[in-house]
Structures are given as structure tokens and as C-alpha cells.
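Below is our example:
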Amino acid sequence: MHPALIFYKFSKFITRKICRANGLVIIVMICLTATSPAIAKIASRCDEPVFGAAGIAIDKVAATAAEAQQIGVDAAAQTAFHQVLTRLLLSKADQDEFAAAHSYDAFTDFVHVIEEKNLEKRYIARLDFCFDAERMRTAMQNAGLQWAELQSPPILLLPVWKDPDGASAWLKNNSWITGWQDAVDHYKGLVSLRRLPHSLTHERRFRGADLLAADPIKLAAAARIAEAEQVLVVAATLDYEGSKRVVDVEVRLFDKTGQPIATIFSQSDIMLGKTDAKPLDATMQAILGRIEGSWHSANLINSSAAGYLLVDVPVTSVKQWSDRLAALRQVAVIKNVTIRTLDTNGGSVLLALVGSREALQNALASQGLALVDTGDMISIIAQSVGQ
């Protein structure tokens, strides 16, 4: 059994001691407040959340409570490990191959109990799992795999359904709208999907017809409420061909000001049965696959495609120089940072890259930085300065 799982065997007092002994400051407060799931969920996030899985549920029955606990924890760890692999590796074959060749306990960093109940022959719990990012990166690199680990900026997803009665974004019993709401709520991938909660205010303010028409004022307002950088309008339009129900689907991407960026999905003449929603479910999965595949492809980490980039890093203080270097070293697509020159105005650094220029730009943006290429010089500056 991995050492991170040992604390299941002890009392909460001993658990607190183990937390401290391992230097896991991030979960000390959690161990002390395990009876408060809301506090625990906020505080128990991994240092690198992409390599974690939160709130894995367990409900196991066995001959003894200890056996139920052991079986349940192992099953939950397997589930968490596969969840992380699915997030990092887009190919199902790569996920299965890696899981077959590696045990989850080789990468387990720590496990946190959100809540648990030990009954006579039953164990019920919710657990958070964090896996060590460096060990997983090394293993994937040694296996010759390509992976992505950068989370996208927040994207607001707005589903719209149009039929002969009109357009709506808030139908309660519509499988298209409720299906997307459920998909966003349960999505575990790298694309940071958000949705607007249903309320009478939102229903009146963001009408389906306005969203379908891509009213930039409405889209921008929705983006502000959701604190999103982009907006996806996923629209399904129902029509009839005789007695047959036919749906056209279009997915458009907008920036946070409501200006169009691209149409990322379009499919016509989807045939529906009288009560069959499976074709729409398949379309939803295809759309999610298109979105996630696009983000993965743009942010792949691939050591076999390594390259170098010499960049200028202007700064105004020693602290800012130190902060810039620290930020660059946190970017997974940058393998090494080598300082070439340094003076009172900053310096130049050579970046060893294991990904594309686009992947670098996206990763820098997540650190509040921007890559600026003037033709004569490539610089890394604060994003607010570059905008």
C-alpha cells in the first residue's frame, strides 16, 4: 500500500500528525475540518489540480469494515487515476497502455478524506486524490507519449433550442438544454466550461432568441456574470420533414465582448425519433470531443519535437526578474530556462521548448504573460502591457 494511504488506518488525531510529519501544509487545515465538506473541498485542491481528482465516492460492503475500506479505497484510487489519464492523454489507446504499465500508487502524492463512515461491514466515503505531477510527466515522457496539461481560460457554454414554438435557453424538460447543463456540471477535462445557473432573472435577461441571434450585448453580459473569457453558443434547431423530426446543430465561439471568433461545429439533418434523444447525445459528445481535441492539439507537450527560442525579458526591478523566471519555470512546455544576458533593464533567456509556439503562448497567458514578436525581437512581457 502506498504511504499516502496509510492514514486511513489511524484516528483523526494521528492523521493530523501524519499530515504535519509529511510537510503537507496544504491539507493540515483539511484534516482538522474533515467534518466540513465545503471547507475541505476548497482547501484540498492539489498544487497542480490537473493531476488530481476530487470527491471520488465510495460505498463498499465486505466481510469486515476494514476489508470494505481497503477495497473501496483501491477502487476509488483506480477511478481517480483513470480520470487524470483521461484528462492528460486524449487517445484512449494511450490511456489504457499507460494504465496497464503503471500502478496508481507509483504516482500518489496524497489522499484526503472529505467525509467517511465506518459501519460494521460497510465503508462510505468521499476522497480527494492528488498525483505527483513530476513523476507522471517523467513516466509519460519515458513512454514516448504526447500529453496536454494546460487548462483553458473559462468558457461559458450557452445551449439554445429552437422549434416552431420559438427559441429558448431555459426549457426545463428539454433534453438538449438539460443535457448540456449536466455535461458541464460533470465535465472533468482540460477545457474550463461554465454555465449560467437557472434563475428567473437570467431567464428574462438572456432569452433564446437573443442568444441565437448572437446579440453581442447579451453575450458580453453573460460572459461578465460567468467571469468567462469566451462564450460558446450551442444551438439546435428543430424542423419537420413530413412526420419526421430533423435537427440542425451549430456551435459558434465568441470572445468575452460578444464578437464572433469561429464556427467550430455544424451538422445538419440529424434525424430524431418521437422520443429518442440518442442522436442528440451523440452530437453533444462529438462537440465536446471537437472542443477538447482542439485544445489538446494546441497545447501538446512532446519531447520529440523539442526546440529553442531566445527571448528578451524586460523588467524594472530585481524582484520582477525573479518573478518572471519563476513563472517561466512553472510552464510545463518549457523544459529548461538558460539565462544568456542580464543587466539593469532585464535580460535574455534561452527557452528549451517541448511544444509549439502556440502552446507556449497559451501557457504564458495562464501566468499573466504575453509573447510579443516584433520581427526584430521576441519578448515576454506582462499580459496587461501587451494588450
In short: The two ends are 51 Å apart (CA to CA).
